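Exercise 3.2. Students should predict the tertiary structure of the chain below and write it as structure tokens, then compare their answer with the key that follows.

Predict this chain's 3D structure.
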Amino acid sequence: MAASIGSNATTLEGQLWETALRIQIAELAIPVETRPNNIQVSIDTENQLVSVTFSVPATFTVDGSGSLVASPTSYLP
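Answer key:
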């Protein structure tokens, strides 16, 4: 399981960006032949936008009230 991170950002948006970059760095540390590509971070300076796309493996269960419960599963070392 990957270690948790601390954030220096003071907004949720900033924290999301920092977290996305850390996940991307963790993915890049995995050898190319087995590296996942679950996160993409792009920066559009012209329109002043940061875009984050993230997919994560998950398990799904149904709780006692019949609600679907999704639990992300770890994929990073």
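Discussion points: Residues 12-28 form the longest helix (17 residues). The helical segments are 12-28.
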